[in-house]
Write a structure and sequence with these properties.
The chain has one domain: Aminopeptidase. It has 173 residues and is of the alpha+beta class. It starts with 6 loop residues before the first strand and ends with a strand. Strands 1-2-3-4-5 form a five-stranded antiparallel beta sheet, with helices on both faces. A three-stranded antiparallel beta sheet has the order 6-8-7. Helices cover 27% and strands 32% of the residues. Helix 1 crosses helix 2.
Length: 173
């Protein structure tokens, strides 16, 4: 299903790996679904999603932690969603994100993914003292996940003409 070299990190129940071209259906299952994209961005058509996947795969080549990644449940290798580390506009730094398919929600996967993803980020990017997260105001579920994972709410920022709730997590000493 995937090679060890494609795996970014694992938690007790999850595997996070780089997307491959063979994952186009999985990538579209998230990016093409209006409900999945409700708090993220407008959904993409299949051709738009395929192009977006190619752009994402090309971004892996720079060796940074930046990108969107596939999340699988360890027990049965079932695809359950996506994880991302992306740059915020301006000079702020990276933000963490995720999207889980409905059957994976309410099981603690989001909190586990954010906690382990943050640990991965700080291990891979030693110069960054903070990791950020942003949500739209209506996405209270993700806001609760971020708070459970140790993030603090900092305020509001504007990105792409939209007001977003800003959260941050400081590197642990």
């Amino acid at each position: 299903m995937y090679s060890k070299t494609d795996i970014l990190f694992e938690s007790s129940r999850l595997i996070v790996k780089r997307f491959s071209r063979e994952d186009a259906d999985l990538f579209f299952a998230i990016n093409g679904d209006p409900e999945m994209m409700r708090y993220i961005r407008p959904p993409k058509t299949r051709p738009e999603s395929d192009l977006f996947l190619s752009e994402n795969i090309d971004a892996y080549k720079d060796g940074s932690v930046k990108g969107r990644f596939a999340v699988f449940e360890k027990s049965d290798h079932r695809f359950i969603g996506t994880f991302s580390l992306l740059l915020l506009d301006g000079e702020m730094g990276y933000h963490i994100g995720y999207a889980l398919l409905p059957p994976a929600r309410g099981k603690g996967f989001a909190t586990e993914l954010v906690k382990e993803g943050a640990a991965y980020f700080f291990a891979q990017v030693p110069g960054q003292e903070k990791l950020y997260a942003v949500t739209v105001e209506a996405n209270t579920g993700s806001q609760k996940v971020l708070l459970r994972a140790g993030f603090c709410q900092e305020g509001i920022i504007r990105q792409h003409g939209e007001e977003l709730q800003l959260f941050s997590l400081k590197r642990q000493a």
